[in-house]
Structures are given as C-alpha cells and as structure tokens.
Amino acid sequence: MYKIGMFSKITKTTVKTLRYYDRIGLLKPEKIDENTKYRYYTTKQISDFYEILLYRQAGLSINQIKEIIINHKKVQNILEIRKNELINLNNLTNKQISLINYLLEEKKEGFFMEYKAIVKELPECIVYSKEMVVKDYNSYFEVIPQIGEEVKSANPDLKCIQPEYCFIKYLENEYKDKDIHIEFCEAVDKMGNEVGDIKFKKIPSVKALCVMHKGPYSELNKAYSYAFKWIEENNYQLIDSPRESYIDGIWNKENEEDWLTELQLPIKSK
Question: Which whole number is the average pLDDT over 146-156?
Fold first, then answer.
C-alpha cells in the first residue's frame, strides 16, 4: 500500500485532489489508519485513478464521472452526450473562425464599413398580411397605408407591437422591378377580424442573417449582394423568402438618404 503522499507522486496529482475525491466518494482510500488517520492506496487504485483522469481529459464533469463510477450509469450514454456537446462546440468554433476571416477580408476591401451582418433570432409574432402583385416599388406608398386603414376599421382595438415591425416578403425566385409579387406583413398584439384577402396568422421564430441598409430602396441590391455573399462564405443556406423590415422611411424621414431598412434572410447551417 502507498501513503497518500507517495500515491500522489505516482499518479502525478495533488494530495488536495485526492482528498477531494475521497470526500465526494469518487476515489476512497483502501484503508485509513484509525490512529494516525493516514490514507493508504493500493496498486489497483492507480488504475482507478487513471480511469477518472481519462474521463476528465475527455471533458466529463465530476458529476458525470460519479454517475459512471458510483451510480454505474451506462458509460456509452454519457460519452455520447459529451461527444454531441463537442461537435456543437466545434461547429460553433468553425463558424466563428469563418466569420473572423470574412470580417478581416471585408475590412481589407473597404466594404466592411458600409455593411455589417449579424445572425439573430427573429421572434415568433402574430401578423396581418396580404399577398399581392404591385406595379412597382413606388406603389408601396399607396397600397400599404390602405391595408392598415382597412384593418384598423375592422379592428379598432388592435395594436401594433412595440417597437413596430412591418416587413415585405418577395415571393418570386428572381429580381423584378415591375409587377412584383409580394406579401406585406404587420406585427400586431393579437389575432383580429380578417378583411377580404387580408389574413391573420402566427409566424414562427427563425434564425436570420440581418443587414442594415441606410438609403434609398433603389440601392438595396448592394445590401442583398453583401448578404448573399456572406451566407455563401460562412456555410449557411437560405431557407425562406428574404424580408425587408422598414425602420425609417417616407413616413418619418424627408430625405431618402436617411431611410433605414433591415434585410432579414432566414438561414440555417449547411
């Protein structure tokens, strides 16, 4: 048998650690002298210690190791959980490295200062919506206020959420500046009475790449180019129609250079 000091030298661990393992029941000494209180360990316990060390090096917590050694839980189940944690961590690390490389490259090219991309969760919301084909982009300023008036007339107690969230989804697979097929949505506090082809629905939460564009709508194509390039180079893929969320516009800013639009592109990892 070995005293705790010698056992700590053999296993290359501290006496403090061995006392801690004894206290929590993970590795108790084979014998404790009743008079001197010295702890004694056997050769077999060297192997037991290395089993604990191996699990620790694999990243298992003390509680997980206790589940295996003391409570005899299935090793495979616990290791599978840890494996999945590491895979998720590795995927996150790779995403972050890819993003850093992208930001470094964008800064070199000078495009970095104009646009920035972030990934965020768009929360679940209730909206009233209308699917339609509009003549051109200028038509938004006529048809959208009219939709709001119709909904308000049928739902006088209905309120927009705060901060307000309205957006347009483009429902075609190509760019068009005439006869544009869109869906207009306005987030509200509850379901309401539908009016004609204006419908209420709940939109689930979704992860989205978001890019802010300041300026006229005629230059939104630059923001879209930036966003799609970012998605491709950071190993994501588009999973739904892009949204244009209008924060500032003709209703509160006289100069179109001050209009602020957030592009929201629903995505998932490849």
Answer: 93
